[in-house]
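[09:14] KT: can someone run the structure on this one? pasting the chain below
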Amino acid sequence: MKLESIDISDLEIELEQTSMLNEKNTEVLKESQTEITSECSSVEIDSESENENYPVHIMGEVANPGVYYLKTGDIIDHLITKAGGLTDRADLRYVNLAAKTIPNQKVYIPSIDEEQMSYDDYLTLVQNEVISESEASQENNKININTADQNELQKLNGIGPSKANDIIGYRELNGSFQTIEEIMNVAGIKENIFEKIKNQITVK
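[09:31] RB: done, structure tokens below
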């Protein structure tokens, strides 16, 4: 029986190649583990960011009024629960329990002992507030004939450079206008022009 001869150098090369392959596999595995760890950390950070707390102030008919910290997406009902729930005198007719809270919000829970109003009265109140805001906006857009210069006065209907100068001249000679109707004392400005500009001017 003959024994086959083994080339020692070939065996050493094979062992060396096997060792190198194992080292590469180990490095790849470590890199994969590092990537997974990084991704998990990122997810945890994002999750913490999404659940970041913010303060909301609740007053009125709750057991424990005060400032409470909520998470994004929490609604008024969650806030009331944190505050110990409602009292027996709470009036929820105009409170939306499903409304989402926002940072630094102030929530008031009214009492049934407070002055009651019907839904129609409530709508009227809201409409009046809208009208008042609209009127205030229009008032702010009016031209003050006591302080306006020539260019501003020419923005008025029917007022050109000549009449604008006449208004300024009258103002310098007689002092400030006391009423908007007084502008009709200026030469060339009669009732027909006044009707065009009366809603555009103010003396305040």
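[09:33] KT: thanks! Residues 63 and 190 are 67 Å apart (CA to CA).
[09:34] RB: yep, looked fine to me
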